Amino acid sequence: MSPRWESNPDIRRGRTVIHTLHAHLVFTPRYRRGPFTDEILRRCEEVMRAVCTDFEAELVEFNGERDHVHLLVRYPPKVALSRLVGSLKGVSARRLRQEFPGHIRKYLWGEHFWSPSYFAASCGGAPLATVKEYIESQKRPD
């Protein structure tokens, strides 16, 4: 019987690591103002997809409303999630301000587009209870 990761397409292989890391991210614009239209959300997704590609990550899912966006990102272990988030927010803010200056200015003022905070949750794989049970079962017999 082969190991689980050999037949699972969600599990990635590197030279020295086998991994499947996913993060659910939520970003809100500064002051929780609602600058997003369907067109701006589409462009935001395109920009964020390109940033993920630069990090050898994948934007698996993207969606949003007028006042926030959700991302599901698969990323390699060599990527610090905080660096990826910084680039996602920085590049998208710069591009959206350049491409939609009049609209964005109506909702946001000053230099900042995104709120400095964000939500991040690890996701995917087995539930924590299952992982805990598995680790407990690996104890050496006394």
TrEMBL record:
All residue ranges annotated as the Transposase IS200-like domain in the record: 18-138
Gene3D superfamilies for this protein: Transposase IS200-like (3.30.70.1290)
Superkingdom of the source species: Bacteria
UniProt cross-references to InterPro entries, sorted A to Z: Transposase_17, Transposase_17_sf
Protein's recorded name: IS200/IS605 family transposase
